[in-house]
Design brief:
Ureohydrolase, 10 helices, Arginase, Chain A, 8-stranded parallel sheet, binds manganese (II) ion, alpha/beta, single chain, 319 residues, Ureohydrolase_dom_sf
């Protein structure tokens, strides 16, 4: 039997403003037997009860889908042809409990256990950054400890937020404590702004992470940095976690905790394209908050960065 290869619905089959919005106008696959045929699944996690300032990421997955309708299949810059070799679909949203964080986290972990068990590489539409913790818990069960490429304005290594151990700013502290990460293969890119103490970013460095503060990225191409990143995180499975606030609010204003002096959209593309060749086992794009995204540009950017992640997954054909 020929391998099933779902294709995004073309603009000549249905106007791009028409139809029901799925990620990249791919089929929405719900049946377990059909999911088993997939290589990659776009999955939404509409959580925003982990945010600390402006909320709204519960609307992220829906709006990223809406802004993804113009993305066409072939990557003209890199030659990637993801739909020529991978079976990709939108597998819908995880039905989180929006009133109970502990329960939401459990539901997310269970959902990713199943996704991974079915052999699907998850590309996640967030949701606030809390969601990466239960995803990494599931990933550990499937792949063991992973390396991490983490793009963010913030380190997200707080011990607690308002006394809570689980929130969008504690994710990677918990991941280290729970032994989910191969700490010598972790890179954080784009960190900036102010700390509670002058040493705030050093907690990450003490774990063995390479911390690339935003200032180190200013005014230049990040292609050379990514050669160093591949050297650091290669040699095993890698997870990619992209907080949209890593990008400057000039381009990505629709987010909950914006910080000035961030990465450009071009640098964001260089980072993801620079992950080509890594053994990626999943990725997420988090912290898009549509109520603060008056033009839709933040969701548009998020949708395109998820497409770029798809293009660098293992097994993608290049033309
Ligand atoms: Mn974050
Ligand atoms: Mn952030």
């Amino acid at each position: 039997m020929d391998k099933i290869l779902h294709q995004p619905l073309g603009g000549n089959e249905m106007p791009r403003f028409g139809g029901i919005a799925t990620m990249m106008r791919l089929p929405h696959i719900q049946k377990t037997e059909e999911k088993r045929q997939l290589d990659v699944g776009f999955v939404g996690v509409p959580l925003d009860i982990g945010t600390s300032l402006r909320s709204g990421t519960r609307f992220g997955p829906r709006e990223i889908r809406a802004q993804s309708v113009m993305i066409r299949p072939y990557n003209m810059a890199t030659g990637a042809a993801p739909f020529d070799s991978l079976n990709v679909a939108d597998i819908g949203d995880v039905p989180i409990n929006t009133f109970n964080m502990a329960e939401a986290i459990r539901i997310i972990e269970d959902a990713y256990d199943e996704i991974l068990e079915l052999g699907i590489i998850p590309l996640t539409l967030g949701g606030d950054h809390t969601i990466t913790l239960p995803i990494l818990r599931a990933i550990k069960k499937k792949h063991g400890k992973v390396g991490l490429v983490h793009i963010d304005a913030h380190a997200d290594v707080n011990d607690h937020m308002f006394g809570e151990k689980i929130a969008h700013g504690t994710t990677f502290r918990r991941a280290v404590e729970e032994d989910l990460l191969d700490c010598d293969r972790v890179v954080q890119i784009g960190l900036r702004a102010q700390g509670y103490t002058a040493e705030d970013f050093n907690w990450s460095r003490k774990q063995g992470f390479r911390v690339v503060q935003a200032e180190e990225c200013w005014h230049k191409s990040l292609a050379p940095l990514m050669a160093e990143v591949r050297e650091k995180v290669g040699g095993g499975p890698v997870y990619l976690s992209f907080d949209i606030d890593g990008i400057d609010p000039a381009w990505a204003p629709g987010t909950g905790t914006p910080e000035i002096g961030g990465l450009t959209t071009i640098q964001a593309m260089e980072i993801i394209r620079g992950c080509q060749g890594l053994q990626l086992v999943g990725g997420d794009l988090v912290e898009v908050s549509p109520p603060y995204d008056t033009t839709g540009n933040t969701s548009l950017l998020g949708a395109n960065l998820l497409y770029e992640m798809l293009c660098v997954l293992p097994g993608v054909t290049h033309k």
